[in-house]
From TrEMBL, chain A:
Protein name: Acyl carrier protein
Domain of life according to the entry: Bacteria
Lineage: Bacteria, Bacillati, Actinomycetota, Actinomycetes, Propionibacteriales
Automatic annotation (TrEMBL), chain B:
Enzyme class, spelled out: ligase
Xref: Gene3D superfamilies: Glutamine Phosphoribosylpyrophosphate, subunit 1, domain 1 (3.60.20.10), HUPs (3.40.50.620)
GO cellular component, one term: cytosol
List of residues binding ATP: V290
Residues noted as binding L-glutamine in the record, renumbered to the chain: D98
Pfam families with a match to the protein in the record: Asn_synthase, GATase_7
MF annotations from Gene Ontology: asparagine synthase (glutamine-hydrolyzing) activity; ATP binding
Keywords, in A-Z order: Amino-acid biosynthesis, Asparagine biosynthesis, ATP-binding, Glutamine amidotransferase, Ligase, Nucleotide-binding
Membership in a protein family: Belongs to the asparagine synthetase family.
Keyword Amino-acid biosynthesis assigned: yes
GO biological process, one term: asparagine biosynthetic process
Residues under site feature: Important for beta-aspartyl-AMP intermediate formation: E366
Name of the protein in its database record: asparagine synthase (glutamine-hydrolyzing)
Length: 68, 661
C-alpha cells in the first residue's frame, strides 16, 4: 500500500454512485478499501469508514493489518 | 458467416457425396452459396453467408498455384491491413475478400498466421504439398469447430449435426460431457456431450497428417501480477479503453458489404456499442431488442431510452411464455447441447427478427461482462473474500445485501444464512474459489439422473478447468483468476455457443462482438482489477469511458443479467404436446438419462406451480426438457431438419491438378 494508491482510490471513488443507506455504504467502502489496499478492517473501523475524509482514511489504512 | 466442413483420409478416398450432404446440413449458416472441393484423400465443403466481396469471396478458395485450399467461417477484421502487409511482401491479390488474405497469410507465415488475425473465425487449410490439414479457431471461441478422428481419417464441421450426416458416426451422449454440462454449464473443449465428437479449443491450431493429430495453443489469456499493472491511472485507462472499443466497433460495423444492425438489450454493454456506432460513424443505425410479456424479465424502458437518445430505427420482438415453448425444440436442435436455461430461445427469436428485416449482421455487447468484470460471480467472490478475511465479524454479514438487490427474494433479508451459503469454501488460495458455488449448485442437478448414468459419471474423471490455469496465476488478482475461468468455460461453451453463434446462425445472421476484439481483450486484461470491479461496482472503467454517451439511468442501473422465464414458459400458459412426449416414460427410458420417478414428480410440481419455482427447480426442468429433446433429435434422429435438400451449387475437382505446382 502506498500513499499514492490511497490518493488514487479517493480520486476514483468520486465516480461511485451515491449509496443511500449509511450501513450499506460503509460495507461497500470497506470492501473497496480492503480489496484495493490489501488491509483488514475491524468491525469498529468498518462502522466508521468514510471516503469523504482523506486524513481519516489514511490513518485507518496505516493502522490496519495487512491481508497478505 | 458461414459453415465449413470436410474430410481428410490417409487410408482411402473420401466420399465427395458425403461431404456434399454435410454442406447441405449447414445451409442455415450460409444460404448464399455452397461448394465442395474434391482432392485425392481430401474433400472440403463450404456454405456461404456472403458479407464481404460477394463476387470474389466464393469458397473453398485456392491459392494461385493450387497447392492450398481454404474453407473459412467468420471474419478476419484486420484483413485490409494484412493484405497491405502481404502485398508489400510480394503477394498478388485477385479479389478483395478476407478469405484470400487468409490464403496468402498461410502461404507467407504458415499455420502461425492466425497469431496475426484479429477476428472471429474457424478455418481449415488443406495443404496439398505437405499432405496435411490445418484447423484453427479464434482466440475466444466465437466460431465453433468440431471434429471426429477415426484412425487415419478426420472429419470436421461447424456443427455436430453435420458430422452426424455420416451415419457410421456413433450418435451417443457421453457421460463425461454431460458431467461437465451439469457442473460448468457447458462442455469445456475438447469435450462435447457426444461420445465420438471433439471440439477444437479456442486459441488453438490442430494439424492432421499421416502421423496423426497434433493440437497446440497459439494464444492464451494472460493477466499481470497484482499491483504491477501497466497503468494505475483511471482516466488514462478509460481513454485507452474508449479508443480500443471505438476502433473495434468501427471495424465490425464498417467492414461489411451489407448494412449492419445492432442489438440493444437495455444494459450497459449494448448501449456502449450502439452509442459508439452513432458517435463514431455517420451511418444510420437500425437496432433490435427482445421484449418480454412477463414484466419480471422485460427491459423495454431502458431500450426505449437508448433508442430515443440515438434516434435509431428500432425493431422489437415481444416474447411470451408460449413463444419460448414453441421454439424451444428448434433451439435445442441448433444448440446441440443440454441447456440449463431457456435464455437462448428469445435470442433465437431476435435473430429471426433481424433476418426478417433484411439484415445479416449485428453488433452486440457480448464479452464485456467477461473481460471487464461485469458478472455477479465476480462480485459474489469479492464479498466471499471479504467474509473470509474476518470469519468472526458479524458486521460483515450485511454485505450479502449488496449482492443481488434486484432479486425479489433478496438473500440480504437473511444475512447470516446467506453468508453461510455463499461463504462456504471461500479459501483465497483456491484458484477456483470464485466458481465453486456455481459449480456446486449446478452439479446438484445430477441427483435426478438415472442410477446407471450416475454410476458412469462417478467412474468418469473430469478435469478441473482451474488446473489448466498458468502457474503465474498465483500472483494474479483474484478477479483475474475468476475472469480466466469464466473466459475458459462459460464464455465459449455457453454464452458464445448456445446463446451466441447457434441462435444467430440458425437464422443466417452473423454476430460481431467488439468487446472480444483482440486489442480490447488484451487491454482489459492489463488493467488493475479495481478499475474493472471497483469494490462492488462492476465495469467501472467502462462506465467512466463512455459516461458521455450512455444515459445516467443506464450507467447507474444495477447489473441485471439477461434472463428469460424458465419453467413457466412450458407450464404457466398451457403445456405443449412435445413436453408430454419427451417426458413420457417411453422417452425417458429410451434416453436413460433421468430417473423417471423424479421427472414425473418435477413435471407434476411444475404443472401446479411453475411460477414459484426457485433457481434449482428451474434448472432441473430446463435440463430435463432440453436433454430429452437433444436425445430425440440428435441421438434417435440425425439432427437434420430437411433431408434431401439441394446439393452444393458448385463442385470443384482438383484431383487432376499438380499438388506441387
Amino acid at each position: 500500500m502506498t500513499a499514492d494508491l490511497v490518493a488514487r482510490l479517493l480520486a476514483e471513488s468520486v465516480h461511485l454512485p451515491p449509496e443511500g443507506d449509511p450501513a450499506q455504504a460503509a460495507l461497500r467502502w470497506a470492501i473497496l478499501i480492503e480489496d484495493s489496499l490489501g488491509v483488514v478492517l475491524s468491525d469498529e473501523q468498518i462502522g466508521s469508514v468514510s471516503l469523504a475524509d482523506p486524513e481519516h482514511l489514511r490513518a485507518l489504512v496505516t493502522a490496519a493489518p495487512r491481508s497478505r | 458467416m458461414c459453415g465449413i466442413c470436410g474430410i481428410v483420409s490417409f487410408d482411402r478416398s473420401v466420399d465427395a457425396d458425403l461431404v456434399a450432404d454435410m454442406v447441405t446440413s449447414l445451409e442455415h449458416r450460409g444460404p448464399d452459396d455452397s461448394a465442395v472441393v474434391v482432392d485425392h484423400g481430401a474433400v472440403l465443403g463450404h456454405s456461404r453467408l456472403a458479407l464481404i466481396d460477394v463476387a470474389g469471396g466464393a469458397q473453398p478458395l485456392g491459392s494461385a498455384d493450387g497447392t492450398l485450399w481454404v474453407t473459412f467461417n467468420g471474419e478476419v477484421f484486420n484483413y485490409v491491413e494484412l493484405r497491405e502487409e502481404l502485398r508489400s511482401l510480394g503477394h498478388h491479390f485477385t479479389t478483395v475478400s478476407d478469405t484470400e488474405v487468409v490464403v496468402h497469410a498461410y502461404e507467407q507465415w504458415g499455420a502461425s498466421c492466425v497469431e496475426r488475425f484479429n477476428g472471429q473465425w474457424a478455418l481449415a487449410v488443406w495443404d496439398r504439398r505437405r499432405r496435411r490439414l490445418v484447423l484453427a479457431r479464434d482466440r475466444m471461441g466465437v466460431r465453433p469447430l468440431y471434429y471426429r478422428v477415426l484412425g487415419r481419417e478426420l472429419a470436421f464441421a461447424s456443427e455436430v449435426k453435420t458430422l452426424f450426416t455420416d451415419r457410421s458416426v456413433t450418435r451417443e451422449l457421453d457421460p463425461a460431457g454431460l458431467k461437465q454440462v451439469w457442473t460448468y454449464w457447458s462442455c469445456v473443449a475438447p469435450s462435447t456431450v457426444f461420445t465420438d465428437i471433439r471440439q477444437l479449443a479456442p486459441g488453438h491450431v490442430a494439424t492432421f497428417d499421416d502421423t496423426g493429430l497434433r493440437v497446440d495453443p497459439y494464444w492464451s489469456q494472460d493477466f499481470p501480477e497484482r499491483g504491477r499493472e501497466a497503468s494505475q491511472d483511471l482516466e488514462e485507462n478509460a481513454a485507452a479503453l474508449r479508443e480500443a472499443v471505438t476502433r473495434a466497433t468501427r471495424l465490425r460495423f464498417e467492414r461489411s458489404d451489407f448494412p449492419v444492425g445492432a442489438y440493444l438489450s437495455g444494459g450497459l454493454d449494448s448501449a456502449v456499442t450502439a452509442a459508439t456506432i452513432r458517435h463514431a460513424t455517420s451511418a444510420d443505425l437500425t437496432t433490435f431488442s427482445v421484449r418480454f410479456t412477463d414484466d419480471e424479465f422485460d427491459e423495454g424502458p431502458y431500450q426505449r431510452l437508448m433508442v430515443e437518445r440515438l434516434g435509431t430505427t428500432h425493431h422489437t420482438v415481444d416474447v411470451s411464455h408460449r413463444d419460448i415453448a414453441e421454439v424451444f425444440p428448434e433451439v435445442v436442435r441448433q444448440a446441440e447441447s443440454p441447456l440449463l436455461r431457456s435464455a437462448p430461445a428469445p435470442l433465437f427469436l431476435l435473430s429471426r427478427l433481424v433476418r426478417e428485416n433484411g439484415y445479416k449482421v449485428v453488433v452486440t455487447g457480448e464479452g464485456a461482462d467477461e473481460v471487464l468484470g461485469g458478472y455477479d460471480i465476480y462480485r459474489e467472490a469479492r464479498v466471499r473474500q471479504f467474509w473470509a478475511r474476518d470469519p468472526g465479524s458479524t458486521m460483515r454479514d450485511g454485505a450479502v445485501g449488496l449482492l443481488y438487490p434486484w432479486l425479489a427474494r433478496n438473500p440480504g433479508k437473511a444475512p447470516a444464512f446467506a453468508r453461510s451459503f455463499f461463504g462456504a469454501g471461500a479459501d483465497p488460495t483456491d484458484r477456483a474459489m470464485s466458481h465453486h458455488p456455481r459449480w456446486s449448485s449446478t452439479s446438484a442437478l445430477t441427483a435426478m439422473l438415472s442410477p446407471a448414468l450416475q454410476s458412469s459419471m462417478a467412474a468418469t474423471a473430469v478435469a478441473d478447468p482451474a488446473e489448466r490455469m498458468p502457474a503465474a496465476a498465483e500472483d494474479w488478482d483474484p478477479l483475474s483468476r475468476a475472469q480466466w475461468l469464466e473466459i475458459a468455460t462459460l464464455l465459449p461453451g455457453y454464452i458464445l455457443a448456445s446463446q451466441g453463434d447457434r441462435m444467430l446462425m440458425a437464422n443466417s445472421v452473423e454476430g460481431r462482438f467488439p468487446f472480444l476484439d483482440r486489442e480490447v481483450v488484451e487491454l482489459a486484461s492489463q488493467l488493475p482489477a479495481r478499475h474493472k470491479l471497483f469494490g462492488l461496482e462492476e465495469k467501472f472503467v467502462l462506465k467512466r469511458a463512455f459516461a458521455d454517451l450512455v444515459p445516467p439511468e443506464i450507467l447507474a442501473r444495477p447489473k441485471q443479467p439477461y434472463r428469460a422465464p424458465d419453467a413457466p414458459s412450458f407450464f404457466a400458459d398451457g403445456v405443449p404436446d412435445w413436453v408430454a412426449e419427451v417426458t413420457s416414460p417411453r422417452a425417458l427410458a429410451a434416453a436413460g438419462v433421468f430417473d423417471p420417478r423424479q421427472v414425473a414428480g418435477l413435471v407434476e410440481k411444475a404443472r401446479r406451480r411453475s411460477r414459484s419455482f426457485g433457481n434449482t427447480d428451474n434448472m432441473r426442468m430446463v435440463s430435463v426438457l432440453s436433454t430429452q429433446l437433444l436425445h430425440e433429435q440428435l441421438v434417435v434422429g440425425s439432427g437434420l431438419d430437411r433431408p434431401g435438400r439441394l446439393a452444393p451449387r458448385r463442385v470443384v475437382d482438383i484431383r487432376d491438378t499438380e499438388e506441387d505446382a
